[in-house]
Write a structure and sequence with these properties.
- The protein is built from twelve helices and five strands.
- By secondary structure, it is mostly helical.
- Helices cover 62% and strands 9% of the residues.
- The chain has two domains: 70 residues, Arc Repressor Mutant, subunit A (Orthogonal Bundle), CATH 1.10.10.10; 194 residues, Four Helix Bundle (Hemerythrin (Met), subunit A) (Up-down Bundle), CATH 1.20.120.530.
- The strands form two sheets. The chain has a three-stranded antiparallel beta sheet with strand order 3-4-5.
């Protein structure tokens, strides 16, 4: 029997980026202080200075650090300078600690709802008949993929992309891509797409009907309620599987508050624990 090939070795710069980022998000390197000097940090990480410089350049692009002339490399507050992709890195840290990142997952789902509500409102005004027909055909295809997890997840992501494309707004499409990418970077996230397939398909069909009605206000209102219910059920099912109390999703507001039972470990704001509230 042929042995499976070993997974490709990660580049040293990628590992250096991950370790420094984890140190920043986890509070080892505090906001407003300087990172250790280049010689010390490269020795600690076991990388060359050239590799370290490349890693710091990437972290600067992420909004986590900045070079300060005559001082060194200053640690920045990710809340002020980071992008949406930082949520994914924070969730990974929580998962590595052996916990389900409910607070962050609730934040991501809430962000998705906020964007989706506006996407539906704009799409209800701009979607073409051809796009409506294509979306309808795609939903039939997605429903036919329920026996194949990989195909179903890919079809679900494509549904979200088609809805964003129907706004005919490139900024919205790119933002939607970013949100989906962060969601899919989380270990086990594919499983969440499969928790309640029947309910998801039913929700998408109702959303298609809202688009056909071409009533932006009704589309926004109904989408807000439909997705809040879908996300609430998703979080409840995950909580049931892992044996913890579920976050709460407010169905009545666009900015549904999501309370969680998590404990705070990181001093820089990565929540793993005590009662928290997710806000968009």
């Amino acid at each position: 029997m042929t042995e499976s090939p070993a997974p490709p070795k990660r580049k040293a710069v990628d590992e250096a980026v991950d370790r420094i980022r984890a140190g920043i998000l986890g509070g080892e390197y505090r906001v407003g202080t300087d990172l250790p000097g280049e010689r010390e940090l490269s020795t600690t990480l076991g990388v060359s200075r050239l590799t370290l410089r490349a890693a710091l350049s990437r972290l600067e692009a992420e909004g986590l650090v900045k070079p300060v002339h005559g001082s060194g490399t200053r640690v920045l507050d990710y809340r002020e300078h980071g992008g949406v992709e930082m949520l994914g890195h924070m969730a990974t840290l929580v998962q590595l600690g052996g916990e389900v990142p409910f607070a962050l997952l609730a934040d991501l789902l809430e962000l998705r709802r906020v964007v989706a509500v506006e996407v539906m409102g704009i799409a209800a005004e701009r979607i073409t008949e051809a796009e409506l027909d294509e979306l309808a055909r795609h939903l039939v295809y997605q429903a036919s993929c329920t026996g194949d997890a990989q195909k179903y997840v890919a079809a679900d992501i494509e549904t979200a992309r088609k809805l964003a494309q129907a706004t005919h707004n490139q900024a919205i499409l790119l933002l939607s891509n970013s949100i989906m990418r962060v969601l899919m970077q989380q270990r086990g996230m594919e499983f969440t797409f499969l928790i309640d397939i029947e309910k998801a398909i039913s929700t998408y069909k109702k959303m298609l009907g809202l688009l056909r009605a071409r009533d932006p206000l009704a589309a926004r209102k109904a989408t807000r309620t439909l997705l809040a219910r879908l996300d609430r059920r998703l979080l409840e099912r995950i909580a049931e599987l892992v044996g913890v109390p579920p976050p709460k999703v407010d169905e009545g507001r666009a900015r549904g508050a999501a309370t969680t039972t998590t404990t705070t470990k990181a001093t820089n704001g990565v929540k793993k624990g005590s009662d928290g509230e997710a806000r968009s």
